[in-house]
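Hi Y.,

Following your request, here is the sequence exactly as I used it, all 420 residues.
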Amino acid sequence: MTSLTIDDVYEHVAGVCFKTGPPGTVGAETEWLVVDPHRPRTHVSPARLRALLDAGGLRPEGPLPAGSLVTYEPGGQLELSSAPQDGLAALREALADDLAAVRKALAAGGLMLAGHGVDPARAPLMQASGERYRCMRAFFGVEGLAMMCTTASVQVCLDIGADPADAAARWQLAHDLGPVLVAAFANSPLAARDGGAYRPTGLKSTRQAIWAALDPGRTSAPTGLDPALAWADYALDARVMMLREAEGWRADPGFTFREWLADDEGPTQADLDYHLSTLFPPVRPRGWLELRMIDALPDPYWQVPVALTTALLDDPAAADQAREALEPLEITHAGPLDGIGLRAARDGLADRELGGAARRCFAAARPALIRLGASELLPVFDEYYARYVERGRCPADDVLEDGGVPRCTRDNEEELAWRH
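Below is the corresponding structure, written out as tokens. Let me know if you'd prefer a different format.
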């Protein structure tokens, strides 16, 4: 295969990662911890999950009946990635149907899905044997093990934009919304301490701290006014995580992608595609915008960050109102736990400025949901607002007040049981 030049990288990023077109397509990826409520500290193997899905008439490796793909994270977390949908209403219906089918199949084997940003009961255990995860573990170290095996998120996927100017505006707004999204949906106040006991960390979103402890060259936000140029430079300056050699994969070969391009036997297009898949910033451009900063939430509250983010980016009036709401926060994107990012992860919506911005963003999004034809999401949207946002709270507050026992859903008796 032909080696790349640096110009090839810039052209690929501009033409593929930032491919423009009229917004309107929506997707979501929901990660779930899988637990046996009768053995709450026992890890559940991916093999057991696959067997139960197969027995339930579902494909263990997606697509599911409504089009979602099933994947298995290295700690045993289960991820459902929706098919791209034409609007919020279609997304909610499809992903909710596939989640219900998966829940039913797992329940037949005594298992359940639990929505938490960090596993509140089990220490990290690597359950994947692939070369990618072996190299990731070697590259990231102890912090990487916690990230791969105990964290879970809700990821929102939206179009890049109608044209380069629109793409730049959406890119900036997606990043500026980050602290509000972290604070409003913080749901990981516990982590392993003192030989495995789980205790409060002092953060409402410990998941943010776990990611912040990793390589900042691949987890922080790119900087620069031109998003395509910023992303290309970010990718070029990131260290190569793994390199295929004759005897197998080698972790952390010791050079950046830019340095690799200068080698006589430089990277190919396939190498660039793989390198881009090893970068994990808060907003990742993949031909669409993938927002990655939101803690996993219990059913049905995963729908709320998807609805909020889509409304604020896809509805022009709501987008303008969101920009006004965010302006007082003085967001710098210096790092996930610097300045406003630290306040969001530590205090959630108890932070006065973040709480005020969140209330204004929710207020802007509500009529936008109606304009976008997604009125069926209003009941859960309004419930979440009344339960948390209006009161300056987030799901992590429930966990802390109940002594480490989550009570984040209306009907979560099983989830309560597995933490006792």
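Residues 406-420 have pLDDT under 50 and may be disordered.

Thanks again,
Q.
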